[in-house]
Amino acid sequence: MPLPLSPHSQAIADFLAALDGFPVLQGPRVRLRGPREDDAAALFALFGDARVTRFWSRPPMQDIAEARELIEQIHAGMQARSLLNWAIADENDALVGTCTLFRFDAAHRRAELGYALHADHWGRGLASEATALALDWAVDRVGLHRIDAGIDPDNQASRALLHRHGFLTEGRQRESFFVGERVTDSELLGLLASDWRQRRATAAAALR
Q1: Dihedral (Cα; 75, 78, 84, 89), 10-degree rounding
Q2: Which of 57, 117, 165, 171 could cysteine-pair with 97, CB 3.0–4.6 Å?
Q3: Global pTM?
Q4: H or E stretch including 130?
């Protein structure tokens, strides 16, 4: 029998349970929304690109049917409240990436962050903007205390993005996941809610 949750942890569990679909998060250039059936082609273009999946935990998609299946899995995960896998949509509402909060743990007030962006949009700061929207929501609305992230240690761009957001590299798991027959380590990073609030305050002060 699970232990009873503290009032704060129970509030997190209740908040997630009460969600009426994917929350829509709007930024200056991107919007996080739930994926739709008509996103399948764009999702296949994203995860069918070997440049994107080079550091991913699965090989590139080979057929659009895989993208359609992924959309179904995303909605099932939302229904189970096991993950929130948003579409990153551009100014035309076209899917250009994904941003995910998953492994929610209300008892310990934490979750994990993941993201992917189509290679055509790299270098524009869109992934940074999208993940900042998710972090704002996780800290301010959900009330999480900590956000984790795991990356391939060779993924320098992803590490740089997370470090800019205030994540700290906290360790490394050896040979922790396979992509086909290739096994790789995981670099483990963490962000506390207090870190994120301080990072935002510093950024806001710099703009004054």
Answers
A1: 40
A2: 117
A3: 0.95
A4: helix 126-136
